[in-house]
Amino acid sequence: MRSKLFVPASRPELFEKAARSEADAISFDLEDAVDEARKHEARAVLSAHLEAPRTHDKLVLVRVNALATEHFKQDVEAIVRTGLDVINLPKIESPEEILAALSHIELCEARHGITEPIRILANIETPAGLQNASASAAAHPRVMGLQIGFGDLFAPLGIRQSNSFAIAQTRWSVRIAAAQAGIDAFDGAFVNISAPDDFVADAQAARAMGFTGKSCIHPSQLRLANEVFRPTPDELAHAVDVTRAAADAGARAVGAFVVNGQLVDGPFITRAQRIVEQARRDGLLVD
């Protein structure tokens, strides 16, 4: 999920455009992008869309309203359909909140005969959420990733979103929390859609910390995100060399070896294997 495009659930005229876009994933939004007065309407429109046959192969997510709101249960009841892959839970602050949300999700799955468990993407966007990110990441096997919400986290604290130190510290904490649970970390949105070069620099900084992808709020950001979060030709070539050498070394019971002048052992082999797998998914590499 290199790129994830936010689409307001109250804007059905954008649904098919999103399906034809370059996004790896579509994230329909029932939370911030939908006015309070239109929540019910947006739920109904989105529910009908999720029940219709899928016309694309993108990952489908829905960001619901927070667990503590009056809208959460209504959101879940409306969207738990066969056309949904992931529920994005905003403002998660503890593993107990994830388990409480899952309890209602499971009831709706049983009611609608959903046999493929819907996964969870947990948003880290409050001080308590950041403090408890590791526990939340490991709360349940259905949690597939953590995602940063810079705006909700920084604005109430008076931290500017241009503060590179705060951004780096937050990314580090979320990335390590996700790594501890063996799941992915996804970067938050870059709100200035008129500054593509700054978007690229921001995405590159996230990728350098091991993030898998980035939220996009405009279609113009999708191609940029896809390019940043795919392996470079040099990275891919080295990863292929490492995986081939690892297979040979394994056959000869060698624990560490040298590839292209670099010492390679377990963690580097794992990283190379992930790069090769991603390149296959992206169509950059065939067997």
UniProtKB/TrEMBL annotation:
Keywords: Lyase, Magnesium, Metal-binding. One of its GO terms (biological process) is oxaloacetate metabolic process. It comes from the Bacteria. Residues 2-219 form the HpcH/HpaI aldolase/citrate lyase domain. Mg(2+) binds at E125, D152. InterPro entries: Aldolase/citrate-lyase_domain, Citrate_lyase_beta/mcl1/mcl2, Pyrv/PenolPyrv_kinase-like_dom, Pyrv_kinase-like_dom_sf. GO terms for molecular function: lyase activity; magnesium ion binding. Signal peptide: none annotated. Substrate binds at R63, E125. Pfam families: HpcH_HpaI (PF03328). Its cofactor is Mg(2+). Belongs to the HpcH/HpaI aldolase family. This is Citrate lyase, beta chain.
